[in-house]
Prior knowledge:
With about 190 residues, the protein is mainly alpha-helical. The protein has one domain. It has helices at about 1-15, 20-50, 70-130, 135-160, 165-185. Pfam families: DtrJ-like (PF14348). Keywords: Membrane, Transmembrane, Transmembrane helix.
Amino acid sequence: MQELAxxxxxHSAQLSTxxxxxxxxxxxxxxxxxxxxxxxxxxGMRSLLNLPSHLPGRTAxxxxxxxxxxxxxxxxxxxxxxxxxxxxxxxxxxxxxALALLTGAIPMxxxxxxxxxxxxxxxxxxxxxxxxxxxxNLYHRFKxxxxxxxxxxxxxxxxxxxxxxRVEWVIVAMVLLxxxxxxxxxxxxxxxx
Length: 193
């Protein structure tokens, strides 16, 4: 998993985005999540397992462990720590992929929506001047399709098993489809008067 994360970092470092650097952002995010998960697990197990020693009516004997939660967590981590580390490395890979796609897509999506909406508004004006067909059904279909395109693109890119997919091509395909949907959405916009 660490090798896959390193490959993803190399691929995202090649992506030049004007807004944010996906590499440093994903490394900071992954480190924060890793330290947070391990800290939460440690504190949670220690507090739950140390709770019975603080109950009223329980007298502590000298042979009792002063911190049974830490002892249990250390034993548990020795047996299951590699599983948790694998899950955390998978989190790194998902963070790198998601942030690379997000930081690369935002400026292009804004530009594509501006072009699509402008072209759609002019097509709507031409259609209205020529007494063309209005369709609220098509308007709503294209509006829903934009969200589905973005969601399916993110899910497919995040679920892709190897690091060989170029994020630039994924972004361009998603942006083009969203721009076409935005144009068609505004072209068939039906304003009730």
